Amino acid sequence: MPGCSAEGCHKAPKDRSLSEYYVFCADHIGEYNRAWDFFSGMHPEEIENHILSSQYGDRPTWRYDPEAPLEEMLYQTAWQSYHFTEKKPQREKTSPPESPHNTPEFEALALMGLAPPVDLRLIKTRYKELAKKHHPDLRPDDPEAEELLKRINMAYTILKIAYEKFEKIEK
Length: 171
Fold this sequence. Notes:
With 171 residues, the protein is mainly alpha-helical. It is built from 6 helices and 2 strands; from the N terminus they run E-E-H-H-H-H-H-H.
């Protein structure tokens, strides 16, 4: 304080930023602290927000939504921390990956003109139809008939084995 000759060893903030300080003696620090109001000039909403944020060390917080998938919540938290914001990330929605249709089983179904779900009876019936229709003895003028029948036989074998494995899993 002006006119005071006592040694100043007590710090008092100059403003709300708390980055600069006055230094007062023991007698005048109490007087300054009683007159100083941290919230002076703030609107009630600002005061409330300050009090709420100080409860968490002035660190950003996020709502916990138990309905949200954990992966999405973790992604959002990481994104917000990285970008120093409370905004939600604008993430492109991707469709779930389709089941692979390039497996031997799907190729066999396609060759036989079938689509899941199928059972062993349907596979056998379709195999017999195709074997009769494309048999090389019935199509002597078709040079690719034998290769096609081999592929039909292989497709039937693949589906039969896959179906047998499926039945074991079911049991």
